[in-house]
Write a structure and sequence with these properties.
Blueprint lengths: L21 E6 L5 E6 L14 E6 L4 E4 L2 E2 L2 E2 L4 E6 L5 E6 L14 E6 L6 E2 L13 E6 L5 E6 L15 E5 L4 E4 L9 E10 L5 E9 L7 E9 L5 E3 L13 E6 L5 E6 L14 E6 L5 E6 L18 E6 L4 E10 L7 E4 L9 E7 L3 E2 L1 H5 L3 E2 L8 E9 L10 E7 L6 E10 L8 H8 L18 H7 L12 E6 L4 E8 L4 E8 L6 E7 L3 E8 L7 E8 L2
Parallel strand pairs: 23-31
Antiparallel strand pairs: 1-2, 2-3, 3-4, 5-6, 7-8, 8-9, 9-10, 11-12, 12-13, 13-14, 15-16, 16-17, 17-18, 19-20, 20-21, 22-24, 24-29, 25-28, 25-30, 26-27, 26-29, 30-31, 32-33, 33-36, 34-35, 34-37
Length: 554
């Protein structure tokens, strides 16, 4: 083929012109093969059916092949809606013909698969004993790896287990040679009938579906909505709705997905999705399913737990560390990619400190120094895929009195979507005798910043001053201790626990069943002022349960 030219595809052998209409073209990924339907009677011999047949044109080889063949002749009835695989080796189409496979007496459209190098056609819309289904079936789409084929069928006797009368969408797996129904859970209270109009994403992971839905539960005014079904985990997403959850207020249909799975193009006349001003007019919309979200985790030492997993700005995520003036405090921040498409992240240090900040930044584990980048607008990570992360070690010198007793903010932002950020905070507490007890805490309970001894137990309750500081309790009052102060039982198996707490400590609830051994954490979170609580649910006839509370510095 010549470039920058238009050439005719619907031509017969030796470039004979078509005698009748042709249409519904589909093209392979490399552009070599084009499949289409045609009424032409001079593309193959003999062609005496006087109706639509399916043809495949090889634009490089210059050949044309009739695919809707019964032996050496054409099908005895019409064939339509061909789809072709990305590599051009598979074609799926629908046909009303009764002579393409044996025992086809249903008088309805069936779905057939043509495969290059394989003689004859394979019936996809079949029963367990190989007969055609008992109602119309229509071709759908093929995944790029040629493994999956979807189609629609009204037949109620196809070869699937646990047949669902609400589903007319089917998936054929060429690798396992199994046919299954596509049966997402219905939209409770809003959906009429099942899902239909399936179309595969190129990678076969997603299927776009249509369904008739009302705007609200119990509604009687139904519109066609577009949904995205993820086969691997069963997640169903309603695409034709606004960000606040409001469904489209008119018909939507015709969804197809981009090769990378990010975009879904669809047709809609719903005026409320984008503030459309031209009412009752079909518009082509593009749904972007990408999310770009950094998730910052922070830890105070190599043997401490990370904080901040799955908590995003403006959630408060921080660590608290004591440090002697002029000394260096080291901590770690891990930037995790919590979105669903690859992204770069911009990491920035605090910019809210009068007098500046003396810090050095290193990407772990190699120890690559990125201080210059962080302090000059921010460091940009390499491209991170979903679930990937980069850890940064920060050496912060406490040489500025303005660093103490305030939140030092460390921010990560998506480069693709800068509105998506996450923030972690560091609070440095001055500790000039370097005993792990903040100066202000020692002054509060012992009069000055050096009187307390970390290992001492002045109230005689069996807990050292350092333990009392960590627990947020009063080291001069033996009655002040971390313990469960309230426990309530309810008939439904719920158990309510309460304990004295402070806001800047991380608490863990642990449970053991049957005996007070083998405790397992069941909850963790920052405390509330004065009192925190947790509600546990035990199974019916559970053995005795034992609980304990743990506490850590943030």
């Amino acid at each position: 083929m010549q470039t920058h030219t238009t050439s005719r595809v619907s031509i017969g052998p030796v470039s004979v012109q078509s005698t009748r209409d042709s249409g519904s073209p589909r093209i392979s990924g490399d552009g070599r093969y084009v499949v289409f339907e045609s009424l032409a009677e001079n593309f193959t011999t003999p062609d005496t059916n006087n109706t639509w047949d399916i043809f495949l044109r090889d634009t490089i080889g210059g050949t044309i092949t009739c695919l809707s063949l019964a032996g050496s002749g054409t099908a005895n009835d019409e064939s339509h809606r061909p789809v072709i695989s990305n590599d051009g080796s598979l074609v799926v189409f629908s046909s009303l013909a009764s002579n393409l496979v044996p025992n086809d007496t249903n008088g309805t459209f069936d779905v057939f698969l043509w495969q290059r190098g394989v003689s004859g056609l394979q019936l996809l819309s079949r029963t367990a004993d190989g007969r055609p289904g008992n109602d119309d079936s229509q071709a759908g789409s093929i995944s790029d790896d040629n493994r999956y084929i979807v189609f629609s069928s009204l037949a109620t006797d196809l070869a699937v287990t646990n047949f669902d009368t609400n589903s007319v969408s089917f998936l054929y797996d060429r690798q396992t040679v199994q046919l299954s129904q596509i049966t997402p859970a219905k939209i409770a209270g809003r959906q009429r009938g099942g899902f239909y109009g399936p179309h595969l994403s190129p990678d076969g992971r997603f299927i776009t579906l249509l369904a008739d839905v009302a705007a609200a539960a119990g509604g009687t005014n139904f519109f066609t909505g577009v949904f995205l079904y993820e086969r691997t985990n069963g997640t169903l997403t309603e695409l034709t709705r606004k960000r606040d959850g409001t469904p489209g207020n008119d018909q939507c249909e015709g969804a197809v997905m981009s090769a990378d799975g990010r975009y879904v193009a669809l047709t809609s006349r719903a005026a409320n999705l984008l503030g459309e001003t031209t009412l009752s007019a079909d518009q082509v919309l593009l749904y972007d399913r990408a999310s770009f979200q950094p998730d910052e985790w922070i830890r105070r030492s190599t043997n401490s737990s990370y904080r901040g997993q799955d908590l995003f700005s403006p959630s408060i995520q921080w660590i608290e560390s004591t440090v002697k003036f002029g000394f260096t405090n080291t901590f770690w921040i891990s930037i995790h990619h919590h979105g669903n498409f690859p992204d770069w992240f911009l990491f920035q240090g605090p910019g809210n400190v009068t007098g500046g900040i003396n810090a050095r930044y290193f990407v772990q584990p190699a120890g690559t120094d990125i201080t210059a980048s962080v302090t000059n607008g921010g460091w940009v990570s390499d491209l991170l895929t979903l679930g990937d992360s980069r850890e940064i070690r920060i050496d912060l010198v406490a040489s500025n009195t303005n660093l103490f007793n305030q939140d030092l903010l460390f921010t990560s932002s998506s480069l693709t979507d800068p509105t998506r950020t996450d923030i972690v905070r560091v609070r440095l507490l001055r500790d000039d005798d370097n005993d792990g007890l903040p100066d202000n805490w020692e002054k509060q309970y012992f009069g000055n910043s050096t009187n307390a001894v970390a290992s001492a137990d002045p109230d005689g309750d069996g807990r050292s001053n350092l333990q009392e500081y960590i627990a947020g309790t009063d080291p001069t009052n033996a009655a002040s201790s971390l313990r469960i102060t309230e426990i309530s039982f309810y008939p439904n198996g719920e158990v309510a626990l309460g304990w004295s707490s402070v806001t800047n400590r991380f608490y863990t609830v642990e449970r053991a069943v049957g005996a007070p051994a083998g405790f397992v954490p069941i909850w963790g979170g920052f405390g509330s002022a004065a009192q925190s609580s947790y509600m546990d649910t035990l199974p019916t006839n559970s053995p005795a349960a034992f609980y304990r509370i743990g506490v850590e510095l943030p």
